[in-house]
Design goal:
Elements lengths: L12 E6 L8 H12 L5 E4 L12 H11 L3 E7 L5 H13 L4 E5 L16 H8 L6 E6 L10 H14 L1 E8 L3 H13 L6 E5 L5 H11 L5 H10 L3 H21 L4 E5 L4 H15 L4
Parallel strand pairs: 1-2, 1-8, 2-3, 3-4, 4-5, 5-6, 6-7, 7-8
This protein binds flavin-adenine dinucleotide.
The site of flavin-adenine dinucleotide has 23 residues, from strand 3, strand 4, helix 4, helix 5 and strand 6.
């Protein structure tokens, strides 16, 4: 099924993100995680892509295929392009189609100072423009409520996001944020700019203070006072931090659903316990008709 179809049933879409295991790790762990996530019946599960590769037997393509065939859940394969040639992407199209993959989250990828970009695809919009006429895939894209770090302003970033949608992205997933107002203000501006495709809110539960500080330094998410007080109070107590982080994410989700957002995309960090706790807390909320 193509992802935009999921947004037509009048309910908030609820989806998960997982990442493939690193090279040389035990791949049975990720398959076990997927089984547990599948039991929570998300609308779809997306699988990230690392240009550096993943453990044998658990690539992005293999996990997406597993999710579709064994969990009977729709899935999206992430794909980055900054370090790819046109021939690499031709190979990917073939690989996706041979494995029954229908949905791709088309991304530029971060520019690694140690790996010179190939300069064949400069932006995610170039990737979509190239792949769309050569495949029957459906394309999603990333978006940034608090502005992509390389953009000079929100106006510039939204202008570029419109190019991505015009190129063929029919669904967007946002970068993580901890302040719902930043997402709701971004959403309003995107709609004014004529971006009409479904936009999912990306929620990352803060269950480990150090991990979140690292993520935030990379993506620049702003931290509301309520959030920093939570980290300061519970950051050194893993169990308290986990429970507080889950409660904070649930609070964010309930507010966003009440505001009528199209969907919630949960960054599960491959942690089925956290995904389960959150899913159980919002089950009735998320399935409520709009
Ligand atoms: P782009 O859309 O190309 O945007 C990058 C910059 O260029 C922005 O400043 C934008 O304003 C500007 N721009 C965009 N289009 C144009 C244009 N046509 N003309 C001029 N300027 C333009 N990374 C991974 O490596 N693997 C993953 O699996 C992965 N998953 C992600 C999932 C989500 C939901 C998100 C939000 C990000 C993910 N990332 C992933 C990170 C992503 O690769 C980085 O944020 C990267 O820096 C930007 O990717 P993008 O596709 O948003 O880039």
């Amino acid at each position: 099924m193509k992802i935009p179809e999921l947004f037509k049933n009048g309910r908030t879409v609820f989806s998960f993100e997982v990442f493939p295991p690193k090279k040389d790790s035990d791949v049975s762990v990720v398959y076990n995680t997927l089984e547990q996530l599948g039991d929570l019946h998300p609308d779809f599960i997306s699988v990230t892509y690392g240009a550096g590769g993943s453990a044998a037997g658990a690539s992005t393509t293999e996990l997406v295929r597993y999710i579709k065939e064994n969990l009977h859940t729709e899935s999206i394969a992430h794909l980055t392009c900054v370090n790819s040639t046109h021939a690499d992407i031709d190979e990917k199209i073939k690989e996706f189609e041979e494995n029954g993959i229908e949905n791709v989250l088309a991304l530029r990828g971060d520019i690694n100072p140690n790996i010179p970009p190939k300069h064949e695809f400069l932006h995610a919009s170039d990737l979509i423009e190239y792949m769309k006429p050569r495949s029957n895939l459906s394309f999603s894209g990333g978006c940034y409520p608090e502005v992509h770090p390389e953009s000079a302003s929100l106006v510039e970033d939204i202008h570029n996001l419109k190019k991505k949608v015009d190129a063929g992205a029919s669904h967007l997933i946002s970068q993580l944020f901890f302040d719902n107002n930043s997402f709701l203000e971004f959403l309003e501006k995107a709609r004014i700019a004529g971006i009409e495709v479904p936009i999912e809110a990306g929620i990352m539960p803060c269950v480990n203070a150090k991990q979140i500080q690292r993520m935030v330094s990379m993506c620049g998410a702003s931290l509301p006072l309520k959030f920093t007080k939570m980290i300061n109070r519970y950051g050194d107590n893993p169990e308290a931090m986990r429970d507080a982080g889950i409660a904070y994410a649930v609070d964010q989700i309930i507010d966003l659903v009440a505001q009528g957002v199209d969907g919630i995309h949960l960054y599960t960090m491959n942690n089925p316990y956290i995904a389960r706790k959150i899913s159980e807390s919002i089950e009735k909320v998320i399935r409520c008709d709009k």
